[in-house]
Amino acid sequence: MTAFEEMAEDGVIWQNGEFVDWDDATTHVLTHGLHYGTGIFEGVRAYDTEQGTAIFRWEEHLERFYQSGKPYDLDIEYSPEELTEATLETVRRNDLDSAYVRPIAYFGYHSLGVSPGDCPTDVVVAAWPWGAYLGEDALENGIDVMVSSWRKHASSQIPTNAKTTGLYVNSLLAGEEARRNGYAEAIVLNKEGNVAEGPGENIFMVRDGEIYTPGLSESILDGITRDTLITLAEQRGYEVHDDVSISRGELNTADELFFTGSAAEVTPIKRVDNVTIGEGTRGPVTEELQQAFFDLVERRTDDHDEWFTYV
Q: What keywords does the record list, in alphabetical order (predicted)?
């Protein structure tokens, strides 16, 4: 039984200001967002800690949620305080110690011209249990990835720093191409042919003890887990280059590579296009930062308590 099937039995979802049973949280088939991808969303993790269930960097995710709606004139009528309480109560009512939290807003049912016109903005918050995104084994032993033939859309074409529902068709194409070819995940290049990110992850490279990650000008999402790892690395004395271009060829000569993301957390990459990275195992820098990350989010340290919203 999947997490969704389990939640459907007695779970609830917050939809447009009220809690509804999981199976009743529906929308019309002629909803604007369904036809044109006109929605925005966030993916946030809540962790089971000794201090109770804690949502990691909720405020930063919520701020990005509102910012993502601005290019589309997607007016979210609920205040940050209202959405925060709705989210906390969603986790509570579903009795979740740890969770993946999904706020989403989209143009709803009214008309189906490309212009949303007077379509309402529907706002939903759901939460469910979700383990390691790419598998528990991946966190320790790493994954095989391929460089996708699909390119990342440029910021001159569509806002790349907004988490727009429709944009993830690009991610789906890249990810499914990789899986059809026997890989766990993809790496996507930007229109210039430089490394952008994964379908749902930012990417880091370690070389000669220093850390590199593509800059925002490379058409990447300004990931919140990305920012977390930069902070943790700098606190441990690493020099982090977070505004660089990384060529495809540099991937093959890296000492270590790893993905970051709210879903993927910190996942090592052991091979790219069947080329072994470093020793073909989780490298020492990746392991140190991964451990620091999980120590942080599971509150085995008191550091950065301001990053947590306790349920």
A: Amino-acid biosynthesis, Aminotransferase, Branched-chain amino acid biosynthesis, Pyridoxal phosphate, Transferase
pLDDT tens-digit series, residues 124-161:
999 999 988 888 899 999 999 999 999 999 999 999 99
Is 283 exposed, middle or buried, given 0-12, 13-18 or 19+ CB atoms closer than 10 A?
A: buried
Which alpha helices (DSSP H) does 53-150 contain, by range? 58-69, 80-93, 136-141
**pTM (global) more than 0.90:** yes
Q: Hey, what are 184's tokens? A: 């766990």
> The CATH number of the domain where 274 resides is what?
3.20.10.10
Distance, CA of 272 to CA of 119 (rounded, Å): 44
Give one DSSP letter per residue of 238-251, joined into a string.
--EEEEE--BHHHH
Structural domain ending residue among the three candidates 82, 107, 128: 128
152 and 224 both lie in a single domain:
yes
The answer to whether position 307 is within a domain reads no
Among 70, 163, 191, 270, the active-site one is 163
